Amino acid sequence: MSIYVGNLSYEVGENDLREVFGEYGTVKNVQVPTDRETGRPRGFAFVEMSSEAEEAAAIEGLDGAEWMGRDLKVNKAKPKEDRGSSFGGGRRGNSGGGGYSKRY
């Protein structure tokens, strides 16, 4: 399991997160997603610690903490949702007709 870290400054990098979370234990992995078009960080990250106890300590110690001018949102990461199965396999709204009703 990993930790979701939200409301990050766009200046935060992997090494910054390793340093801060390292105070709570061994950091196994850090991912800072970037915007596909601009390449800039998206303002959130995922951090994986080596044990559940270390993750719990990091969440307890950092959730709501102010860092680089922002109040962090730190909690257990939720599994990624499969977005392809909603809306009937990718179809949206009604099935055809151009969005208007037929009147005779």
Automatic annotation (TrEMBL):
Indicate, by first and last residue, each region the UniProt record lists as having compositional bias (Basic and acidic residues).
73-84
Say if the entry is tagged with keyword Lipid biosynthesis.
no
Is RNA-binding included in the keywords of this UniProt record?
yes
In this chain, the stretch annotated as Disordered covers 73-104
Q: Which residues form the RRM domain?
A: 1-79
* Recorded superkingdom: Bacteria
- SUPFAM superfamilies, alphabetically? RNA-binding domain, RBD
A single GO molecular function term of this UniProt record: RNA binding
Give the InterPro entries listed for this entry. Nucleotide-bd_a/b_plait_sf, RBD_domain_sf, RRM_dom, SLIRP/GR-RBP-like
Q: Which SMART domains match?
A: RRM
Q: Identify the keywords attached in UniProt to this record, alphabetized.
A: RNA-binding
Q: Which Pfam families match?
A: RRM_1 (PF00076)
Q: Where is the composition biased (Gly residues)?
A: 86-104
What is this protein's name?
RNA-binding protein RbpA
